[in-house]
Amino acid sequence: LELARREGIDLTHQDMPFYDDNWSPTTCSAGFPAAAACALAAISSSTGERPDILYRITFPYRFSGADAGKVFVFGTAEHQHIRDDMVDAAHRVAGDITIITPSHWSKEGFIRFGFPESWVHVVPHGVDPALFYPLTQQERAKARGAIGFTDQHFVFLNIGALSSNKGVDILVRAFAIIRQKHRGAVLLLKDARALYALTAEDAVDEIIRAHALDPALRDAIAVISDNLVLSQMREVYGLADAYVSPYRAEGFNLPPLEAAACGLPVLLSQGGATDDYAHPSFAVPITARLAGNGIENWLEPELDSVVAGMEALIARRTGCDASKAVPWIAENFSWAKAADKLLAVFGA
Fold it and tell me: Residues 319, 280: contact at Cβ < 8 Å?
């Protein structure tokens, strides 16, 4: 969308098949507003002419050369490792390929795969400040009421797939400790079951069983399972009091940045991909140690640090300031800024 707004760029596209046959634009809509959806639809399909720049955003990654002036491939290496199934078997590395990845943590994975460091460029993701910004008091009260939350609740939020790299098991264990002391604390999970068929209910049940937690904890955990449009996602962020992400491995981890753009303080694992954007105006660090098995790397967040951070968020003694965070994100991590950096790498 940002590139389509730039003068001097003739932008065309060729859609690739969905990675999963069960995905569809209906069940897995990106949720753009009507104007943005129309702008995307207006980008013409490739006619087969040789482009000056070919930018591949697909999975598995296609690293081979192509009939283009320059070839760029987007990818992430959450665990700082590129597995065989992450690379199209018919498109192994051949010729000069430039990798675009959204964090320095992820960049290390491509270097370990064998790409020269000069071939791997970090271009961060971003937030559209016109889509993600704080709710008004009236909007917030309405959004909280729709889920059954009152002013007496302190709402912790986490959004995304329930895979182990997200650290939801650590979050639920920490929340169980917090809940013993703060009966008004609640946890809101927004899963991505339309994409990955992993449900928050199943994940929570398994965590409760595995760690012998009180089954009554389920009553303090709310779940949003629907695929939402971006305006609804803003409401989900804005109704919460804090975002918690004790992740193990991420390529970038966009939801915490979107949450901060909506005015939330954010509890984040320290030492990973989010170090690229964690700012004291909104980020509260979780102590985490670097772990690995000789092939993959990840973080192991300390449970006590997560609990301490959640306690600090409830007490509102984190030093976070949304009045500084929101403009800082708009200035440094908007999609417009990301497009500027991308064009600089392209040499365009």
Answer: yes
